Amino acid sequence: MPTQAYATLEAEKQLNVGSAAQSADVSWMFWDGGAQVPVPTNDTLVIDARDLAGIASVAVDDPRCKDDGQVITCVNTDSSQSRSVEFILRAQAGAAPGASGTIRYTLSADRATGATANAMVVVGIPNLIVGRLPDVTHARIGSRIDVPLRLRNTGELATDRRVMLRWESVGGLVFDRMFSNCAYGEGDEPGEPGSRTSVTCVFPVGPDSVPAGTTVELSSPLTATVGEHVLTAVTDYSVELLQPGVTPGGGSHQGTGPALTLVRASGAGGGFEKGAEGRFTVAADNSADLAAEATTKPGRKAGEWTLDINAVNHGPASAYGVDNKSVAVVDVVLPKGAVATGTAHMEEEDSPYGPCLLGGSGTTTAPFEAGHRHYVCTVPIGVAAGKSQLFELWVRTAKGYDGAKGTATVRPGPAGIPLHDPDASNDSVTFTFGTSATPAAAVPSGDTLAATGAGRTTLIATAAGCAALLGGVAFMVRRRGRSH
């Protein structure tokens, strides 16, 4: 077993610099093989940038560090200090693009072996931006669409690292596995809108490098099939230059065809994004028939009720939101003489109940609050064809309640995705609370614990909250199996 720790240094092997200041960092750690030797002390890192004379300057703003020209020495006086140093690089005025030099890192410490590492610094930066892909409208279910892509190098140098392109899609596109240098990923249910699909392609340095000022495109477009339940599919795409030695993530299925390559682009194309990311959508000739359903059940005591609300998707399309924005909401207005005392939503993935928020004027909402009549229940992610999303409110009616009706209405959500709902007649449903249950009434399914006592408000606890009892406000959690 070792009698002292071994040191390792971690830093990028190549740094590209321009006239604007750019940050970089170097970090280190110690390993003793489980021998539990004394903790190393007096970590001393030397950043030697003398080889960058006339090429780039290095500066550090850190109280642990002192500089002597192009040599910077940083010392940790105790083991609790950060084992990382950030520094600033800037190309020297007049340095020619492509000029290069080396930074040398040296680490030493008491009760530890030392370590060294080098980083090449190159003047000039390759900078790839992605072309704009047009949205596809009126796509036929089962049809195959082309997904081309263009890249432009707006930097001063040709790309000298591997180029990685990635497409990530949700909404029901299924990509063909056609290219051997691409990895394809898919969720548990390929073709279902709630299942993510991805394509990750890596292009080596050499023939696929992109010279400065050049525009390239894919040698062949990707192709994807529009699944049978697609309503609107959203695909994000991006480009990245991979650091040497980095293994890109991606799908578990490798393509079996020829390698995809980058070739000089022809024609004007459709414009470019400002950066390395873009998005396009595929809208299918499809529709989602979302309907509202409501059921009331008496509670343990007179005037206590459970209101179950369902947003049911009769299809044929599945309806999914974008960027965690809800594709649909259910607007719930309790009748006069009734107020909500709680909701059954819990902030965890397997909760069968969706969240209900306090409704305001127009489209405004606020966190759930008991004692009101207007609530907006949001479909968290989406509703697959043939499935439904359940919401639950606990309600108390006043002694003078006269059987007035409330309403639950499905409306488009903040995701802004058109549902093309073919049947508006089932978008809204009315409900009423009948004769209040007596104390001897049956307990609702799932051992519901309704609010008790005059003026007491029952709220569900969220995962982020703490169970507490404050004055007349009781927090409690319950669980019931999914019934739909």
Tell me what the structure shows.
- This protein is mainly β and 484 residues long.
- 0% of the residues lie in helices and 47% in strands.
- The strands form 9 sheets. Strands 12-24-21-15-18-17-22 form a 7-stranded mixed beta sheet, with no helix packed on it. It has a 6-stranded mixed beta sheet with strand order 2-10-9-4-7-6, with no helix packed on it.
Largest sheet: 7 strands, mixed
Structural class: mainly beta
**What percent of residues adopt helix (DSSP H or I)?**
under 10%
* Binned strand content: over 45%
Low-confidence stretches: 436-484
Biggest sheet: strand arrangement: 12-24-21-15-18-17-22
Oligomer: single chain
Give the overall pLDDT as a whole number: 85
The coarse overall form would be extended
Tally the helices: what do you get? 0
Number of strands: 39
Instruction: Please report the distance between the alpha carbons of the first and last residues.
Output: 59 Å
Rg calculated over all Cα atoms: 31 Å
Brief overview:
About 0% of the residues lie in helices and about 45% in strands. The chain has about 475 residues and is mainly β.
Output the keywords:
484 residues, disordered C terminus, 0% helix, six-stranded mixed sheet, extended, seven-stranded mixed sheet, mainly beta
Write the layout of secondary structure elements.
Elements: E1 6-11, E2 14-17, E3 22-31, E4 41-48, E5 56-59, E6 65-68, E7 71-75, E8 84-91, E9 100-110, E10 112-123, E11 128-130, E12 136-139, E13 144-147, E14 150-153, E15 162-170, E16 173-175, E17 182-186, E18 197-203, E19 215-218, E20 222-226, E21 232-242, E22 253-254, E23 262-264, E24 277-284, E25 288-298, E26 304-316, E27 319-320, E28 328-333, E29 338-343, E30 356-359, E31 365-366, E32 374-378, E33 382-383, E34 388-397, E35 405-412, E36 428-432, E37 457-460, E38 469-470, E39 473-476
Parallel strand pairs: 2-10, 12-24, 37-39
Antiparallel strand pairs: 1-3, 3-8, 4-7, 4-9, 5-8, 6-7, 9-10, 11-14, 13-20, 14-19, 15-18, 15-21, 16-20, 17-18, 17-22, 19-23, 21-24, 25-26, 26-34, 27-33, 28-32, 28-35, 29-34, 30-31, 30-32, 35-36, 38-39
